[in-house]
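In the current project phase, the collection of sequences with tokenised folds has grown. A representative record is quoted in full directly below:
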Amino acid sequence: MNYNGPMRTILAIFGCALMAGAQATGPASKAPAGTEGWRAVARQFKGGHVRAHQKFLSGDSLEGRGTGQRGGQVAIDYIAAQFELAGLKPAVNGSYIQPVPLVGVETDRSSTLAVVKDGQEIRPEYLADYVANNEAQTAVSDVDAAMVFVGYGIVAPEYQWDDYKGADLRGKVLLMLVNDPPSDDPKLFGGKALTYYGRWTYKYEEATRRGAAGAVLVHTPQSAGYGWNVVRNSWGREQAYVEVRPGEPALKIASWITEAAARRVAALAGQDLDKLTAAAARLDFRPVDLGVRLRSHLVSKVRPIRTANVIGVLEGSDPKLKDQAVVYTAHHDHLGVGEPVNGDAIYNGAVDNASGMGILLELARAFAAAPLRPRRSIVFAAVTGEEAGLRGSAYYAAHPAVPAARTAVDINYDGLSFLGKTRDAQMPGIERSTLEPIARQAARALNFRIVPEEHPEQGYYYRSDHFSLAKVGIPAFTLDLGSDVIGKPPGWGEKQEAEYRARHYHQPSDEFNPNWDYSAAEQAAAIGIYIGWQAAIAEALPGWKKGDEFEAARLKSLGR
């Protein structure tokens, strides 16, 4: 992007202020084996710098950092400038920019949807009752197909679960429930913890594999983990997809409907949604032909999207290990400009995820400014398209700066609330890897306790960018502080988090708050520095524990 004078001035001010310490340091020495190295990096890390980055990235001038939008491109160029000022090496053929080719599909409000039977019909209202997108990426998509209820839409051989039972569903529209089947048994879909099978992404993927014309997900706040307003704000706008090649299967309609609308559809079919839901919870469930047809006419604006990951590398000190790496990630995108709420149409994304980006940028500066360097290299990857379905991190996983077999760990930062230092921290997934002892050491060294994921039923492990790297075998997790805030009464932190999820998540009101406490950013960074440093100096690369769902991918990457 060609910056005008004011934008150049902004970047110059930020660059000079934030990188002053890095300019004065000399070449890094070989990493020590003890605690001196990670502490040297942690001493360089400044919470005030995170504040400055977060304030800029979530400002109205960046228009919500929408994928493929002007503000998103400004964020990309800003991050690349910061990496260069920090002294990182470009990771992509002499550039910090890794283009991520995507296609934008935006449903026009002239689109229509109806469910019909014997001359009767239901016509849900767009945004109020349903959202829908054409994943086939064509300007017009028409569907007139029978609807089949397929329960949770899951095929999980390891749990002996198959909602499809061999039914031929080619050309049909599949109505399905969000989340996993209910279970209190950790050996069945993780008990109360959501697995990837419960995620909307899996359900659309499985419907596509089945040759379905469309898939309609039934939303409830309990099953999805967020209100309908989040669905409307997230899916009722341009969606970014990997390009569908000629001949590849794709859903002509990928939709969500409200619970109330789903009840009306069930009633038209002579069914009861509660009874269908109860039947879907049983192992012997079989698809139910509803005897109704879905007729949709989707009109879409389709365009190529210009977006990118931004990647910089700090070279390791060990000639034999510097071709291996520790990766730190955070996503730079948010929702851009969308449906106004109380007159505000800019979805600033201050928490989600200018917070994580602020930490990533300051981590890059702190590592580069430290007088000591770890044995392995450190990769800093600011990824795009997280809000569109982890697009940028998936692209990085397929086109990494350092191959998966030589990557020790991905430490991801996403959606941190800077409420103050806490007595606890969350890092779901680390207990599944051989990094767990290092995490325990970090807890002792930094005086915090590791707590389980506060809402495992929401499946956050499968909802952020680390998941893309885990899928290719890299031990990966998102690091977040807990809710036991020092100096606050019990339950205060959880109350603040609940308020954010209810009132600000994916809303224009997710805005910068000058009262945030950036000692929390320093604490979250110190934990990540400790774990990343130890992984970067260890003799052997970490892996997944035996039997974990990602172990096979790790072994495959290692050629075993």
